[in-house]
Amino acid sequence: MNKTMKVRLASTEEDLLQAAKVLLQLRPQYDLPAILAQISKQQEAGYQLAIVEHNNTVICAAGFVITEKLAWGKYLYVDDLVSDEHSRSLGAGKEIITWLKHFAREQGCRELHLDSGMQRKDAHRFYDREGFDRTGYHFAVINLED
Question: Is residue 128 part of a domain?
């Protein structure tokens, strides 16, 4: 583990604010008040945020849930994972993945899952290096209003 980085669950309003600013780089469809409101709403359903701090600044955030499915048993699912664009290649992504794997095991999870957009080739190479298997395709009907 990189001694200059600290990985932990976000626990304060300041943690959430800093994490939200990083998450906006992945979720630009939100503004800051809207993403904070959405995080709060999702937290009511079990959403948690892990953060990586470096020099007292959040440089990486991962939003996740722990749940169960017939297919996988109890598992941790990463909804959102992003390193600050100005802090990439410092090892924060590796730190948070290592932390998520450990946390998942502590919680009795059998697996860790995430989806990644088809266009995110750099992220895919990172997940490959971190030991993720490419296990399938994700299909979605994007607009049910049509």
Answer: no
